[in-house]
Every structure is written in structure tokens, then in C-alpha cells.
């Protein structure tokens, strides 16, 4: 999600029993509500469980009851990218990583778009970065996958007609 959507997330939008976060349209950039089922995302579930156990106030992420400020997030991010040896990275890069990682996991483009809040295919394409590793996987899939195995009956019939 976008930084402000997570930073300003109130507990009222987190359903711990149903293990979903429901972002209402008033809080999303697109004006449309979204759902993120966090129960199958172990790191996010652990984070929310820990925040739930220590909850104190309206917001999931806060300091003294107020949402964590942008300055604090920028400072923490700067330190994290320095420690990771990834200078120049921005928080928004995580949206690209999400699109790529979910696509590589076989999640449909429509589902990725719903989760991220992208309404158009052009927005998905803007975030869905295809790199050399993706291209190598595509070639390997063609030449090392099912295509080199036994042909299906439909493929055999198609070849015999040509």
C-alpha cells in the first residue's frame, strides 16, 4: 500500500479475527476501498499481532497516540537502506517489488491490481518491472518445462494435421 495508507491506519480497519485490513475509500488515493488479507503473510501477521498486543490508541503505528510522523519514517528508511547497502532506494520502490514478487509467485494481474489499488493496466505495467532474471525464467520455462516433455493429445493431433 501507499506509505500514508499504512502510516495512518486505524485499528478500526483491522479485523484481527478475520485477518484482513479494510481500507475505506476515503483513505485511499483512488477513492475506492481495498482489502488486504494479512493472515497468509507471516511477517505482516506477526507485526500486526505484536502491535495488537501492545495497542494503545486509535492508530496501529503511532508514537504517544499520534500517527508516526513522516520525518521519523524517512529517517528510519534512510538508515535501513544504508545498512542494506541499497543507496537511492525509496519507500515507494516497495510497490514495484510487490508487483514483481506477486507476479513471479503466479498471482494474477487482476489480483495484484486489486491488492495494490491500481485501476488501469497501464498503472500495473508501470510498477511491474520485468528484468533479465524474468526473461531467463521465461526461456527456461519454454525449453526446460512441459514443452520438452511428452506432447498432449491435442498437441499431437495439431502436429499431425500440419
Question: Please, could you describe this protein's structure?
Answer:
With 162 residues, the protein is mainly alpha-helical. The protein has 8 helices and 5 strands; from the N terminus they run H-E-E-E-H-E-E-H-H-H-H-H-H. It has helices at residues 3-7, 42-53, 70-84, 93-104, 109-116, 121-127, 132-144, 153-161; strands at 14-15, 20-23, 34-37, 62-63, 66-67. The strands form 2 sheets. The chain has a 3-stranded antiparallel β-sheet with strand order 1-2-3. Strand 4 and strand 5 form a beta hairpin. 10% of the residues are buried. Mean pLDDT is 86; it is low at 147-152.
Assign an overall shape.
Answer: globular
Query: How many alpha or pi helices?
Result: 8
Cα separation of the termini:
50 Å
Structural class: mainly alpha
Strand order of the largest sheet: 1-2-3
Element-level helix/strand string:
HEEEHEEHHHHHH
Q: Describe the sheet with the most strands.
A: 3 strands, antiparallel
Number of strands: 5
Calculate Rg over CA atoms.
Answer: 21 Å
Strand content range: 5-15%
How is the secondary structure organized here?
Layout: H1 3-7, E1 14-15, E2 20-23, E3 34-37, H2 42-53, E4 62-63, E5 66-67, H3 70-84, H4 93-104, H5 109-116, H6 121-127, H7 132-144, H8 153-161
Helix pairs in contact: 4-5
Short description:
With 162 residues, the chain is mainly alpha-helical. 50% of the residues lie in helices and 9% in strands. Mean pLDDT is 86; it is low at 147-152.
Amino acid at each position: 500500500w501507499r506509505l500514508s495508507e499504512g502510516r495512518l491506519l486505524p485499528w478500526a480497519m483491522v479485523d484481527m479475527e478475520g485477518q484482513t485490513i479494510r481500507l475505506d475509500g476515503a483513505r485511499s488515493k483512488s477513492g475506492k476501498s481495498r482489502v488486504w488479507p494479512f493472515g497468509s503473510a507471516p511477517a505482516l501477521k506477526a507485526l500486526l499481532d505484536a502491535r495488537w498486543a501492545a495497542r494503545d490508541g486509535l492508530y496501529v503505528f503511532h508514537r504517544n497516540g499520534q500517527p508516526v510522523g513522516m520525518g521519523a519514517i524517512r529517517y528510519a528508511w534512510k538508515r535501513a537502506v544504508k545498512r542494506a547497502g541499497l543507496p537511492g532506494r525509496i519507500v515507494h520502490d516497495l510497490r514495484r517489488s510487490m508487483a514483481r514478487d506477486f507476479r513471479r509467485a503466479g498471482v494474477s494481474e487482476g489480483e495484484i491490481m486489486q491488492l495494490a489499488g491500481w485501476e488501469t493496466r497501464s498503472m500495473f505495467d508501470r510498477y511491474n518491472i520485468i528484468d533479465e532474471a524474468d526473461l531467463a525464467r521465461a526461456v527456461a520455462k519454454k525449453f526446460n518445462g512441459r514443452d520438452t516433455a511428452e506432447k498432449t493429445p491435442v498437441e499431437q493431433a495439431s502436429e499431425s494435421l500440419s
